[in-house]
């Protein structure tokens, strides 16, 4: 929008470089060009402001495919006004000389023209295309058809409009149809996810089985080693018992031999002792046999005296003493001795 100021009953207009200004005074064109700045009288001035920059027009409209499915097309058309004089002559771009505001809605007229033209060519393409093909390849086909149709539209060059680019953003079906179309892909994705889960579980089970087999093999090997250990311990115990038995036998034989030798030695000693005693007894008897009876009696008395208790004093009557001396063959005691 042009910048208009008031000074001393006159108006001053200052436009942007992207706005083409056309100033008519009394039917004659006095100013024509972008980015102008000039003074004018509002009562005698006719002003037009035509934007010459690139403008984006977003559009969305409904269409029906060959299988009678409703779809929504979202597109964007970039255009610019290349001939401001033609555009100002065909479309009302006049502005209020006091405020600088457009008296009409020229950009809406251009938007309606472009939208209806693009919609017409889009409907022509989608009406011959099934829904699946439209969703897969319809974007490129619609973009090409709209670009070709806008370039061949005679009203646009006559209005001074050039189409710079056409972009089709999306072609979307109704929500229920879109959910239905997503279902097979989602089911396939879910199946793939389930298959991956099953495979992961199978791998986990296989690994657990391998671990269990390794543990079982380890237990079997441990049991085998324990069995060998028990056998070895039994063999060692048996060998130890055999060695102990053999040692005990050797020890018993040695003890028996020693006992036999000891018994023989004792018997020999007893025999020799008996023989010595017998020989001594025989010698003793021979000695006693050769000694006279009185001597034997004296020895007997001596032996008897050795074995009797101690007698401090002994009183013998004469009769006893006489008899004793008579037996011993000694002199008789005198009377009164």
Provide a short characterization of the protein structure.
The chain has 337 residues and is an alpha+beta fold. The protein has seven helices and ten strands. The longest helix is centred in the C-terminal third of the chain and has 116 residues, at 175-290.
Q: Which keywords apply here?
A:
single chain; alpha+beta; four-stranded antiparallel beta sheet; three-stranded antiparallel beta sheet; 7 helices
The count of helical stretches stands at 7
Largest sheet: 4 strands, antiparallel
User: Could you say which overall geometry the principal axes of the C-alpha atoms support?
Assistant: rod-shaped
**How many strand segments?**
10
Q: What proportion of the residues form beta strands (DSSP E)?
A: 15-25%
- Portion of residues in helices? 55-70%
**What is the ordering of alpha helices and beta strands?**
EEEEEEEEHEHHHEHHH
Radius of gyration: 77 Å
Question: Could you name the ranges where pLDDT drops below 50 across 5 or more consecutive residues?
Answer: none
**Euclidean distance between termini CA atoms:** 200 Å
How are the SSEs ordered, and which strands pair?
Elements: E1 3-7, E2 10-14, E3 19-25, E4 28-34, E5 37-40, E6 45-51, E7 55-64, E8 70-81, H1 84-90, E9 94-95, H2 106-126, H3 131-152, H4 155-159, E10 161-173, H5 175-290, H6 293-307, H7 318-328
Antiparallel strand pairs: 1-2, 2-5, 3-4, 3-6, 6-9, 7-8, 8-10
Region (Disordered): 232-252
Domain Band: 32-197
Protein name: SPFH domain-containing protein
């Amino acid at each position: 929008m042009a910048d208009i100021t008031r000074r001393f009953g006159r108006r001053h207009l200052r436009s942007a470089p992207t706005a083409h200004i056309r100033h008519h005074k009394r039917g004659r064109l006095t100013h024509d060009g972008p980015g102008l700045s000039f003074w004018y009288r509002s009562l005698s001035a006719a002003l037009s402001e035509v934007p010459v920059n690139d403008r984006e027009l977003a559009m969305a409209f409904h269409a029906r495919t060959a299988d009678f499915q409703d779809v929504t097309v979202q597109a964007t058309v970039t255009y610019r006004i290349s001939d401001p004089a033609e555009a100002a002559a065909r479309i009302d771009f006049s502005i209020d000389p006091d405020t600088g505001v457009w008296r009409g809605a020229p950009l809406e007229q251009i938007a309606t023209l472009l939208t209806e033209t693009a919609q017409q060519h889009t409907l022509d393409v989608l009406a011959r295309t099934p829904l699946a093909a439209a969703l897969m390849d319809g974007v490129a086909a619609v973009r090409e058809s709209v670009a070709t149709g806008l370039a061949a539209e005679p009203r646009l060059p006559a209005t001074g409009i050039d189409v710079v680019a056409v972009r089709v953003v999306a072609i979307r079906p109704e929500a229920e149809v879109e959910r239905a179309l997503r279902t097979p892909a989602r089911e396939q994705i879910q199946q793939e996810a389930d298959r991956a889960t099953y495979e992961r579980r199978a791998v986990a089970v296989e690994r657990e089985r391998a671990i269990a087999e390794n543990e079982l093999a380890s237990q079997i090997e441990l049991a085998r080693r324990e069995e060998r250990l028990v056998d070895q311990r039994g063999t060692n115990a048996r060998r130890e018992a055999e060695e102990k038995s053999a040692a005990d036998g050797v020890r018993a034989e040695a003890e028996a031999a020693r006992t036999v030798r000891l018994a023989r030695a004792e018997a020999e000693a007893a025999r020799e002792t008996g023989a010595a005693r017998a020989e001594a007894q025989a010698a003793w008897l021979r000695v006693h046999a050769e000694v006279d009876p009185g001597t034997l009696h004296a020895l007997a008395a001596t032996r008897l005296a050795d074995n009797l208790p101690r007698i401090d004093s002994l009183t013998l009557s004469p009769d006893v003493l006489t008899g004793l001396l008579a037996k011993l063959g000694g002199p008789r005691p005198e009377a009164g001795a």
